[in-house]
């Protein structure tokens, strides 16, 4: 807007304040009052003046009349919109002709009366008021004409339509890949098959990993911990994150497919990754190993995509709404955001592909990229379950971890109905994650280009009534090291009072800082997205974001020895089970070890003696923490099970998952994982376990899903 236009708007606000106060003077019922004060200004239908409109805007008029017709109690008149300089002062150009206006506020004032609805015809216009006695001819003594130009309608083109058909089709493909991520992350057996359920894997090989994932899920559903070694737990966390992110990703693809136009196109949408973060936490890798590092990095990129889609969907809806209404301002605002969020999704997707390439190369070098579960064997076992039910040994396994008889019966019915992916290996999982982005990448590129074209066409004709913000920030940083971020803002009114809100945790709330500058200390490595909202006194706001690549500051502690070697040992009532743990920190930080039973802290130190109080399963957790406040803790969880279940049939059967080993412990930190052993180096008791355990583990997976549905 020009300086002249800005001065006009400021003068107009003073006039409007006078009108709102009401003009003094008597209104005599039954006779016309003398002509005193009559005026009119174009307004924005929201208690503010406006002198430039787009073809898709509505025109309102605010003003005052000063003649009350005989027998009336309010000033009344016909309001005309005519071309500037028209020889005929009553040559109204609006649909339906002149508008009849009542001035009942104060001494004849009226506010924001709608006089011209879109589409408007470009040009320059005057406002004419024809007051009583309505003679059909303009009377300068009683009527009013603004003279000159009261307002103009720009010759901007109607808002371009954004073609969302392509991205909807691509989103349908992305939805299929997102569901595949969930299924594969759930079934992927090679994640931690040597280190999670140590007393099962000796006989089961790759199939035992399914038990590991199943038990992890079962314990999550019941808010209990699972028996895991430290390194394998990190990778299990990674797959839990991927599974959770895939659920959120599916919802966003569904939203893209079903997006309707949104008429509230004057408001911009911010990023909100709260759902994705809740499904994905914790984010820290926990060990400097290639597999968990790659998993967490991939999950972060997926979460950023989820947040971008979460904002992109309503922005596209609002852009469609602006097109329908023909609003150049709405199109400009929403095209800016549509482009920004499409580009954020693209950036996160490219980062995801790079991480997947790195992880695939590592797994291929270890020969485990295409290793996986024997799907045919698992399908055969599930088919047999439909006919024969669970064996006594399988029931004992389930009961030893806390499943009730009712739970087991539910599993007997539901398990045979469960679909199994055709291929369950690392290659399939990485392929699903790759496909989730590649399927929508062309549509995102096209959408960003369309949005930029719309912005470029409409911005020159759109007066921006609120702030336009950007963030000055470094491109990279380090965990624990403060950095300064600052806001840069443009506003048509240089004296506008602005308020600032920062969101550094991507929860959608701008409550992490105030003011135009922010001191920000990253707390976790990886890609960090920071958002800023700037708002003026009129309520107009802009929301922008920036991304920062954060490097780790140090290494977390790692267990180098944990005993006993069995993560799910058996014990009789009143029997003492002795635990010990030793951890080291690569940075040389001091390490503290804490012990807890069923979530209640019991002791500190390298050893802990647990007395089995009853025949229920109990979780014993050991946590190693260093002195770095930004470093994640190491944790390992044991499940102490009642000895009555050790023989596979309530104490009376043969076989079973195996009892405690006589070994002296496990080197939990030995070696880099290869995708099959997770780098655990744990001792595995030979001959332990049973071929029925994978089916029992799959039963626990189904039980988890059912309990989640009930809790939800």
Characterize the structure shown.
- This protein has helices spanning 3-21, 165-187, 198-204, 208-221, 230-257, 274-280, 290-325, 328-366, 375-388, 392-400, 405-414, 426-438, 441-458, 693-711; strands spanning 39-43, 52-53, 59-64, 75-83, 99-103, 109-116, 123-131, 144-145, 151-153, 468-472, 476-478, 483-490, 498-503, 517-520, 526-536, 541-551, 557-563, 570-571, 576-585, 591-597, 600-604, 607-611, 618-626, 634-642.
- The chain is an alpha+beta fold and 712 residues long.
- The chain has three domains: 3-153, Macroglobulin (MG2) domain (Immunoglobulin-like, Sandwich); 165-192 and 228-373 and 424-551, no CATH class; 557-683, Immunoglobulins (Immunoglobulin-like).
- Residues 650-678 have a biased composition (Gly residues).
- Residues 679-691 have a biased composition (Low complexity).
- Residues 1-26 form the signal peptide.
- It comes from Chondromyces crocatus.
Q: What's the helix and strand layout?
A:
Elements: H1 3-21, E1 39-43, E2 52-53, E3 59-64, E4 75-83, E5 99-103, E6 109-116, E7 123-131, E8 144-145, E9 151-153, H2 165-187, H3 198-204, H4 208-221, H5 230-257, H6 274-280, H7 290-325, H8 328-366, H9 375-388, H10 392-400, H11 405-414, H12 426-438, H13 441-458, E10 468-472, E11 476-478, E12 483-490, E13 498-503, E14 517-520, E15 526-536, E16 541-551, E17 557-563, E18 570-571, E19 576-585, E20 591-597, E21 600-604, E22 607-611, E23 618-626, E24 634-642, H14 693-711
Parallel strand pairs: 2-9, 11-16, 18-24
Antiparallel strand pairs: 1-3, 3-6, 4-5, 4-7, 7-8, 7-9, 10-12, 12-14, 13-15, 15-16, 17-19, 19-22, 20-21, 20-23, 23-24
Helix pairs in contact: 2-5, 2-12, 4-14, 5-6, 5-7, 6-7, 7-8, 8-12, 8-13, 10-14, 11-14
Organism: Chondromyces crocatus
Protein name: PKD domain-containing protein
Signal peptide: 1-26
């Amino acid at each position: 807007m020009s300086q002249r236009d800005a001065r006009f708007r400021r003068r107009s606000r003073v006039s409007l304040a006078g009108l709102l106060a009401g003009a003094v003077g008597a209104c005599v019922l039954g006779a016309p009052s003398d002509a005193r004060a009559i005026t009119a200004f174009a307004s924005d239908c929201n208690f503010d003046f406006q002198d430039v409109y787009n073809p898709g805007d509505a025109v309102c008029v605010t003003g005052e009349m000063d003649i009350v017709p005989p027998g009336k109690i309010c000033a009344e008149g016909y309001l005309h919109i005519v071309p500037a300089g028209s020889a005929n002062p009553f040559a109204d150009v609006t649909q339906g002709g002149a508008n009849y206006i009542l001035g009942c506020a104060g001494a004849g004032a009226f506010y924001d009366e709608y006089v011209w609805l879109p589409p408007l015809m470009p040009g320059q216009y005057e406002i004419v008021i024809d007051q009583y006695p309505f003679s059909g001819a303009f009377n300068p003594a009683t009527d009013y004409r603004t003279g000159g130009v009261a307002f103009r309608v720009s010759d901007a083109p109607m808002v371009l339509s954004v073609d969302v058909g392509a991205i909807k089709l691509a989103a349908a493909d992305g939805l299929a890949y997102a569901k595949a991520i969930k299924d594969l992350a759930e079934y992927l057996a090679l994640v931690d098959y040597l280190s999670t359920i140590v007393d099962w894997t000796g006989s089961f090989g790759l199939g035992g990993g399914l038990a590991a994932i199943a038990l992890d899920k079962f314990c999550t559903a019941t808010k209990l911990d699972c028996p895991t070694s430290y390194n394998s737990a990190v990778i299990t966390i990674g797959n839990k994150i991927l599974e959770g992110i895939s659920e959120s990703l599916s919802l966003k693809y569904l939203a893209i497919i079903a997006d309707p136009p949104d008429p509230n196109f004057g408001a911009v949408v911010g990023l909100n990754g709260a759902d994705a973060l809740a499904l994905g936490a914790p984010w820290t890798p926990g060990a400097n190993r290639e597999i968990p590092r790659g998993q967490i990095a991939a999950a972060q990129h997926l979460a950023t995509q989820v947040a971008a889609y979460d904002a992109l969907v309503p922005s596209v809806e609002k852009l469609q709404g602006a097109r329908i209404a023909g609003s150049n301002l709405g199109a400009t605002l929403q095209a800016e955001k549509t482009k920004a969020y499409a580009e954020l999704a693209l950036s996160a997707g490219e980062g995801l592909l790079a991480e997947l390439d790195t992880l695939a190369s590592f797994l291929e070098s270890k020969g485990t990229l295409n290793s996986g579960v024997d799907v045919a064997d698992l399908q055969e076992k599930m088919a047999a379950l439909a006919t024969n039910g669970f064996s006594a040994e399988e029931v004992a396994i389930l009961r030893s971890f806390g499943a009730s008889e009712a739970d087991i019966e539910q599993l007997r019915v539901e398990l045979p109905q469960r679909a199994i992916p055709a291929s369950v290996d690392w290659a399939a999982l990485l392929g699903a994650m790759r496909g989730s982005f590649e399927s929508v990448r062309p549509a995102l590129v096209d959408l960003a280009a369309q949005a930029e074209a719309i912005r470029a066409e409409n911005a020159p004709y759109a007066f921006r009534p609120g702030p336009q913000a950007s963030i000055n920030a470094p491109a990279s940083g380090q965990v624990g090291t403060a950095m300064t971020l600052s806001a840069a803002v443009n506003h048509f009114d240089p004296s506008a009072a602005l308020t600032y809100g920062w969101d550094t945790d991507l929860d959608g709330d701008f409550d992490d800082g105030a003011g135009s500058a922010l001191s920000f200390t990253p707390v976790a490595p990886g890609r960090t997205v920071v958002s800023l909202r700037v708002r003026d006194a009129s309520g107009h706001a802009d929301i922008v974001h920036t991304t920062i690549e954060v490097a780790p500051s140090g290494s977390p502690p790692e267990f180098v020895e944990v005993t006993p070697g069995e993560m799910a040992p058996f014990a009789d009532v009143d029997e003492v089970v002795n635990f010990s743990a030793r951890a080291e920190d690569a940075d040389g930080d001091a390490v503290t070890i804490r012990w807890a039973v069923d979530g209640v802290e019991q002791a500190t130190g390298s050893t802990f003696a647990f007395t089995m109080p009853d025949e229920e399963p109990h979780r014993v957790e050991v946590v190693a923490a260093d002195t770095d406040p930004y470093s994640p803790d190491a944790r390992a969880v044991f499940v102490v099970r009642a000895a009555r279940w050790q023989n596979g049939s309530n104490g009376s059967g043969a076989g079973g998952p195996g009892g405690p080993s006589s070994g002296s412990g496990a080197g939990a930190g030995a070696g880099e994982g290869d995708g099959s052993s997770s780098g655990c180096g744990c001792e595995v008791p030979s001959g332990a376990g049973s071929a029925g355990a994978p089916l029992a583990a799959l039963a626990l997976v189904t039980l988890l899903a059912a309990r989640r549905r009930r809790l939800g």
